[in-house]
Q: What sequence folds into this?
């Protein structure tokens, strides 16, 4: 270094000693500014800042003295900050934010990645040399002493930072000569990290797309529990910045139940002008505006509705990408509520799609209005690839457990537009099932919106047959949900005898063998059944079996069983009408019409779906729909195993296999009979409880299992599930004794218990085991070679003939005690 350079170096160092405290202040405020900026765009970003140490300043100045002297400048990174994000997309957003809020020294700023040639992989980072612009940035007041001083801001991803921390300083900031093989290895690592960045980005985009449409499916109990927790959190939250965050989480839960008045109440304190507000305040304005529109949807010209629409529009000016997508969807929905406003609604959904082209809900709504306004088949054909992609996106939401039942509704819409009626019916059936579940929080408006959709896409024409099926399915769901029908459903039969069993499955002669192997079991299972049996009304397969059951029962008891055959308008070439049916009801439609019609007749006759049993054997697409329709409306479906075709597919279907109403029945007469004819004795609640306790005490005496079996606890410590099981066994004891030819009577004095014969014990033991099998299956247990209580697996969920003799003796011992236990409960058992 020359004397001149030394003198210059000393003067610059002396100057920096004076400037250093100012750069300390600069670094502190730069960190505050970047934290505020990242709060919305990269909330998990790591922010680092520091003034350049005196020794680093002196060293850099000494090494580059010639260059700095010739340019007449000093280092520009005397104050430095670093933003480390999770993804490259966040890097891009932070870079845009820096450009918007700082003066950029373009000459000295650089995106290092742009210097890499196509075949190169290495250090990647964006370096900005900036100056403060304005007295405030993101609400942070800037000290005047900072003035026009420059700072450097680096922006990189976590993986880029890892590469830089490990290799950049060792390679580019060293006097050592780095071997070429090490450079190649580092470049290889850089390539892997670059690929990792891209894969991380894809995963994050996918996850964020799920978060964008919040709608995690919760039942009423879980929703109430979550609401209680967040109410407590909101009440105790002292930080004003966090209160709107908690309130928004509560608002999301309220939206799941359609409680928009609660959303307005929760968010009102945080609603002002979006302006310079943060993400939470902007989101609160969007949700508050949407809730106002929902509450006043029937009066869209009212001030409150317009206020809500204005709030959404106001928030759009400052909303980030994800919030903007949501706000545009809300605005489109609000526009759709205004009479004679279909064109604006269509345009609003188009604007929402422009911002978020992959959104399946906006796509379905846009097409709804486009068809309503005159576009026909050409539009559907052109959009077929988009429909399929949207269906795939909905399946992703379903797998993630979010946006239910809306994803199923949207799949139903799109597959209807793709002329795939069975797939559409299946999706709509599952959506209805989610709406009608016991603890569902889905408002009935969800079904009403789908009914409106069907009418809109058929404006000015008669409904296509497949569209008429969908409409009828939705009307059935609405009737069950409301407990009354709208008047658009019409019955073919005025009354039906309860209980009702539906026998569904294959009716093609080609698959007769699949049905025939269950023939004897099913025939015996229906023995003594009094009520209504519904089937297809043809002469083949399951339908022919139903007619044969009717004939056998008529010969046995003089016709206590009414069999209804619902006949399609046209029959396949290998089918014919079976003359043995006691009644044959003509049905609308050629395929799915019969099932929709007999359910219409059942509902209009006052039959509750939960009281209907469906027995399934084999079957094709029509049977597959019958099974799903019954489950959707709340019935129990038992599928004969080992199952084939549609029945097997149903048990494996991820949408339905966990459904509480679906079970696979073993090939066993007594199990099938217990499912079709559940015991219904005339015992009072008190009698039932006393008998149940007696049965459990006898069970403990037998000591079938040792502790820690949860079923081996005393009555007062027994879980409610096991208490219920004992009550059902007591109920079954009385019912099965009556079914076997005994009479149960209330007595005041003690009586000598009846002694059962060995044949009677065997018959009753078979019945009891079949009942126990069905009860366990309905509670979610499944067969396995090894018992596992936690996983609900049991080796005894088989028919009586496959049960080991060592296990059979327990059932025999239990039923042998029934007369004595009932006598202790004040009931006598005598032979008729």
A:
């Amino acid at each position: 270094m020359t004397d001149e350079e030394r003198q210059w170096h000393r003067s610059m160092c002396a100057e920096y000693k004076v400037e250093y405290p100012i750069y300390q202040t600069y670094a502190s405020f730069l960190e505050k500014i970047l934290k505020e900026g990242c709060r919305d765009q990269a909330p998990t970003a790591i922010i680092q800042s520091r003034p350049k140490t005196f020794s680093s300043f002196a060293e850099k100045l000494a090494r580059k003295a010639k260059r700095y002297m010739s340019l007449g400048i000093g280092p520009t990174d005397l104050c430095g900050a670093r933003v480390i994000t999770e993804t490259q997309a966040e890097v891009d957003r932070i870079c845009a934010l820096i450009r918007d809020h700082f003066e950029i020294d373009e000459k000295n700023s650089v995106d290092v990645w742009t210097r890499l040639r196509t075949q190169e992989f290495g250090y990647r980072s964006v370096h900005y040399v900036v100056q403060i612009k304005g007295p405030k940035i993101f609400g942070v007041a800037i000290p005047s002493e900072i003035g026009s001083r420059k700072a450097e801001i680096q922006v990189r991803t976590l993986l880029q930072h890892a590469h830089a921390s490990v290799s950049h300083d060792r390679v580019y900031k060293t006097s050592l000569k780095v071997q070429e093989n090490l450079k190649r290895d580092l470049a290889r690592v850089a390539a892997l990290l670059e690929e990792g960045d891209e894969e991380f980005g894809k995963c994050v985009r996918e996850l964020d797309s799920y978060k964008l449409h919040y709608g995690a499916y919760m039942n009423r109990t879980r929703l109430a529990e979550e609401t209680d927790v967040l109410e407590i959190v909101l009440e105790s939250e002292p930080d004003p910045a966090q209160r709107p965050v908690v309130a928004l989480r509560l608002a999301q839960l309220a939206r799941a139940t359609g409680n928009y008045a609660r959303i307005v109440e929760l968010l009102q304190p945080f609603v002002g002008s979006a302006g310079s507000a943060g993400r939470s305040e902007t989101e609160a304005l969007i949700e508050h505006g949407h809730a106002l529109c929902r509450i006043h949807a029937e009066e869209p010209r009212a001030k409150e509705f317009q206020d809500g629409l204005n709030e959404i529009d106001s928030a759009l000016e400052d909303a980030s990408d994800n919030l903007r997508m949501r706000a545009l969807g809300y605005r489109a929905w609000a526009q759709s509520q205004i009479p004679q406003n279909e064109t604006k609604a269509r345009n609003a959904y188009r604007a929402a799609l422009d911002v978020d082209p992959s959104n399946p809900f906006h796509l379905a709504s846009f097409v709804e209005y486009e068809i309503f306004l005159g576009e026909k088949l050409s539009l559907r054909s052109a959009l077929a690839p988009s429909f399929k992609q949207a269906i795939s996106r909905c399946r992703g939401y379903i797998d993630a457990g979010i946006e239910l039942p809306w994803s199923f509704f949207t799949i139903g819409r799109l597959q209807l537009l793709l002329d795939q009626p069975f797939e559409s019916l299946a999706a709509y059936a599952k959506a209805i099932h989610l709406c009608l579940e016991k603890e569902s929080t889905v408002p009935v408006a969800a079904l009403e919106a789908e009914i409106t959709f069907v009418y809109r896409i058929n404006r000015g024409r008669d409904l296509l047959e497949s569209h008429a099926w969908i409409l009828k399915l939705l009307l059935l769901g609405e009737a069950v949900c409301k407990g009354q029908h709208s008047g658009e459903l019409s019955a073919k039969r005025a009354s039906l005898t309860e209980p009702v069993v539906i026998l569904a499955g294959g009716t093609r002669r080609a698959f007769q063998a699949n049905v025939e192997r269950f023939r004897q079991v099913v025939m015996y299972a229906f023995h003594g059944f009094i009520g209504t049996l519904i089937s297809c009304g043809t002469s083949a397969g399951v339908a022919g079996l139903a007619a044969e059951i009717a004939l056998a029962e008529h010969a046995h008891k003089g016709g206590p069983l009414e069999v209804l055959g619902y006949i399609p308008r046209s029959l396949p070439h290998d089918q014919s009408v079976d003359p043995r049916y006691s009644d044959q009801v003509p049905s609308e439609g050629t395929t799915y019409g019969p099932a929709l019609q007999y359910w219409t007749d059942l509902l209009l006759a006052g039959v509750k779906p939960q009281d209907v049993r469906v027995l399934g054997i084999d079957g094709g697409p029509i049977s597959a729909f019958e099974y799903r329709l019954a489950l959707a409306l709340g019935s129990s479906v038992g599928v004969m195993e080992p199952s084939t075709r549609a029945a097997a597919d149903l048990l494996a279907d991820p949408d339905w296999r966990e459904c509480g109403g679906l079970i696979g029945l073993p090939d066993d007469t007594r199990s099938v009979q217990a499912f079709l004819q559940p015991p219904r004795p005339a015992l009072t609640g008190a009698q039932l409880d006393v008998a149940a306790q007696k049965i459990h005490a006898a069970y403990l005496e037998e000591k079938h299992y040792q502790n820690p079996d949860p079923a081996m606890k005393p009555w007062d410590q027994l879980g409610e599930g096991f208490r219920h099981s004992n009550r059902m066994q007591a109920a079954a004891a009385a019912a099965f004794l009556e079914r076997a030819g005994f009479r149960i009577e209330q007595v005041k004095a003690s009586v000598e218990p009846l002694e059962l014969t060995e044949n009677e014990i065997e018959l009753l033991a078979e019945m009891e085991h079949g009942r126990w099998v069905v009860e366990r299956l309905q509670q979610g247990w499944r067969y396995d070679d090894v018992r596992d209580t936690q996983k609900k697996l049991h080796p005894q969920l088989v028919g009586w003939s496959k049960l080991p003799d060592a296990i059979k003796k327990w059932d025999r011992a239990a039923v042998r005690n029934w007369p004595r236990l009932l006598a202790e409960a004040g009931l006598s058992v005598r032979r008729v």
